[in-house]
Specification:
Blueprint (H helix, E strand, L loop, with lengths): L8 H4 L6 E7 L2 H11 L47 E11 L8 E16 L2 E14 L2 E13 L21 E2 L2 H10 L10 H7 L9 H16 L4 E7 L8 E7 L2 E6 L4 E9 L1
Antiparallel strand pairs: 1-3, 2-5, 2-7, 3-4, 4-5, 6-8, 7-10, 8-9, 9-10
Helix pairs in contact: 2-3
Pfam families: FAS1_DH_region
GO molecular function: (3R)-hydroxyacyl-[acyl-carrier-protein] dehydratase activity
InterPro entries: FAS1-like_DH_region, HotDog_dom_sf, Mitochondrial_HTD2
């Protein structure tokens, strides 16, 4: 096994406080495609775009020749150039302060808030917290913290593909390959684990395409809004276990906790919510 590279924290900490600002108007087509992808899983709020749609706005338009072999943008730029091979969106917090409507021009200011090194079972881990302030006409409508974790590559052996067609319980959510492709397209996410079956099974060792963390968070935050009867919520979330295409999950909730659970009891994603 190749040893993990040393992390030059003095160099990486130079990215602390860096910020970038981007804007995009919410086009009717973006709203329509998002609704078509999630359907009845969305909180039915009138005169506002669905919770989670903001992740489809102003994605980084990285040139094709500036992508790494996994489809992620190459290291550097706004995010620090962390030399660890694997990068994932581990969790975060989002506060929906005011509704966003179709036609609004949404401006997002993103700032590197913290860079923290930890030691994991597979080697060094680096956590980068990115803070977002999202406003419409100068009024902050969404506040968010995104937690990104970098770690050494996890080269697991190929896993056998499983057939879940016969064990889908009533009311379960099943993310299929088409849904994952649509979500990747809406968010301009080139990470190959979500749409490239040979890559994700042979190179990454998963049994099937991997369901996006933000897609799972979107399901849970909308379910939380349905339970509270309002879209003005704070939602803290984190990924716990991989979910792959075709695996049915149920939305479970107790008190302020809400989670996605496989048929074998494994929790893939969880969150906690409160009204604002």
């Amino acid at each position: 096994m190749t040893p993990a590279p040393e992390l030059d924290m003095e160099h990486l900490n130079q990215w602390l406080g860096r910020s970038e600002t981007v804007s995009e108007s919410v086009a009717p087509g973006v709203d329509e495609r998002f609704r078509a992808t999630f359907g009845a899983w969305l909180y039915p709020a009138a005169q506002e775009v669905p919770l989670g749609l903001h992740w489809c706005l102003s994605p980084s338009a990285v040139a094709y020749n500036a992508l790494g072999p996994d489809g992620h943008p190459a290291r550097g730029g706004f995010l620090p150039p962390v030399p660890l091979e694997s990068r994932m969106w581990a969790g975060g917090q989002v506060k929906f302060l005011h509704p966003v409507q179709v036609g609004d021009t949404v401006t997002r200011k993103s700032t590197i808030g913290s860079i923290t090194q930890k030691q994991g079972r597979s080697g060094p881990l680096l956590f980068v917290a990115v803070h977002h302030e999202i406003d419409v006409d100068g009024r902050i409508v969404i506040q968010e913290r995104q937690d990104i974790v970098y770690r050494p590559a996890n080269k697991r052996g190929p896993s056998p593909r499983q057939d879940h067609a016969g064990d889908i319980p009533a009311g379960a959510y099943v993310g299929d390959a088409v849904t994952l492709f649509r979500y990747s397209a809406m968010t301009f996410n080139g990470h190959r684990i979500h749409y490239d079956y040979p890559y994700v099974t042979q190179e990454e060792g998963y049994a099937d395409l991997v369901v996006h963390g933000p897609l799972q968070a979107t399901l849970l935050m909308n379910a939380a809004a349905m339970r509270t009867g309002t879209s003005a919520i704070q939602f803290d979330y984190r990924g716990l276990s991989p979910l792959t295409a075709g695996e049915p999950v149920m939305i479970r909730a107790q008190d302020d906790r809400i989670w996605l659970e496989k048929t074998d009891g494994t929790v893939t994603f969880e969150g906690r919510y409160s009204t604002l």
